[in-house]
Amino acid sequence: MGPLIISLDVAQRADLFQLIDQFDANETLTVKIGMGMFYGEGPQIVRDLLNMGHHIFLDLKLHDIPNTVENGMRQIGRLGVTYTTVHALGGAQMIAQAKRGLLSGAQDAGVAPARLLAVTELTSITPQELQAEQNCRLDMADQVVSLAQLAKKAGADGVITSPLEVPTLQKQVGKDFLYVTPGIRPHGAPQDDQARTATPREAALKGSNALVIGRPIIQAANPVNTYHQLLEEWENAER
Ligand code: C5P
């Protein structure tokens, strides 16, 4: 069973530490840092969190020509993060070189290599956009499976997906691949802009390997208690 990753979608360093500092200093968290925080604060914010003993999911969704992505991933690999992301739409060669960059950066720096997760179609893309803008001949479900298969073949370690899609992906792509799932909501919590959600227990039953949870934790009256409740549900779910 993988971690419950807290998505720290806040604008500034001070807001991030205001949340982190509420937790016991001995508690090891896995936190997702996105492009807003990274572009604003640079890699030092990642190093600071790693120095505190936390694990990082650095979600930068790289997508460029293979050589450029490999160079970017070499730098990410040096940091010692646990997970990072590419767009599967960049193609098999780009994904393979992303992986190569990550491995070589990690080896240079003497740290464990990050797991490479692929984003398939963004959940913001509608089936209409898939056809009219991307000129895709597959429907959304088949396109997501196709991109996940491509990512796996090219050397990615997993994909980001809705928990509701995991059973299908496990069948068509395999169980030897990580399914990291946002779109998690506790029972009765607001859905925000997430269209299709699952609870931590439901996600576990469907085969999620790791959860990504943002607003239900960071906007809670007591983020630490909420995190522990969700973690207990995730860890104690029957699998
Ligand atoms: O606040 P919430 O729990 O919805 O946050 C989920 C996190 O996962 C956010 O950082 C969001 O950008 C990310 N995410 C998502 N759906 C995807 C891919 C990423 O919600 N398909």
Description:
The chain is built from eleven helices and eight strands. With 239 residues, the protein is an alpha/beta fold. The chain has a single domain (4-236), classed as Alpha-Beta Barrel (TIM Barrel). An eight-stranded parallel β-barrel has the order 1-2-3-4-5-6-7-8, surrounded by seven helices. Strand 7, helix 9 and strand 8 form a beta-alpha-beta unit. Helix 9 runs parallel beside helix 11. The model has no long low-confidence stretch (mean pLDDT 96). It binds cytidine-5'-monophosphate. Cytidine-5'-monophosphate (C5P) is lined by residues 7, 9, 34, 123, 160, 182-183, 192, 194, 212-216. The site of cytidine-5'-monophosphate has 14 residues, from strand 8 and helix 10.
